[in-house]
Structures are given as C-alpha cells and as structure tokens.
Amino acid sequence: MPPRAKKRAKVGYMISAVAELYKLHPQTLRLYERVGLLKPSRSQGNTRLYTDSDLERLDVILTLARDMGVNLAGIEIILNMREKLIEMERQMGEFAQVVQQELSRVAASRVQGKTQQHAIVRATPRFGR
Fold first, then answer.
1. pTM to 2 decimals?
2. Structural domains of the chain in order of their starting residue, each with its CATH number
3. What tens digit of pLDDT does each residue of 65-118 get?
4. What is the layout of strands, in order, in the sheet containing 48-50?
C-alpha cells in the first residue's frame, strides 16, 4: 500500500507579524477585518491567521489607501468589482473553450462529410436486409 500523501497546511501569519511587515498598527488590521476588507482565518485558539492570499489582498488595500487616497468604502467597492471581474474572466475563458471545442467538432464533421462526397463509389447503408 503506498504511503499517504501529507496534507499541506496553509501557512498562517499572526497579526503581529503582518503588522510589523506592513508597518501597520494591529488595530488597523482589526479595522479592515471589522469592515469586511480582510477575512483572516482563525486558529483553534481564535488567533487571526493571515494567508498569502490575505497578504496579496492587503497589498491591494494599502496601495488603494496609501498611494491613491481611496477611503474604506471606495476600497470595498473596488475589491468587489475586482472579484466580479476575475469571475467574469473565468467564465469567459470557459465559454471560449466550449466554443472552440464546438468549432473543432463542426470542422471535423465537415471534413468527414467532404471525404464521403468525393468518394469514387458512394456507400449507402442498407436497411432491412
């Protein structure tokens, strides 16, 4: 029997490490969570744990707030629109893939139909033998 694959644990950064890394007060991170901009997971001891995707989102939040002067309400709107855009891009990719498969199928059936039309002897199926 092959050995079981170990489940890969999500890396979680504690609030103090994130605050120090981004030069923020921990209360700022708590505020972002309270208004719904960040949603860190929690340990069994209820400690906030920030994943890499949380940190990527925090980068966007801080760019909008610090560099562009966007307020919290504006940041929320921008993040929601960004998530919707990403979902729409995913759906469009799936749709394009389905269309491409259908076009390939139609093209293949046309090629097959042309070879039957140009055959020296046309073969027709016999019914009721």
1. 0.67
2. 13-113 (1.10.1660.10)
3. 999 999 999 999 999 999 999 999 999 999 999 999 999 988 888 777 665 555
4. 13-14, 48-50, 41-42
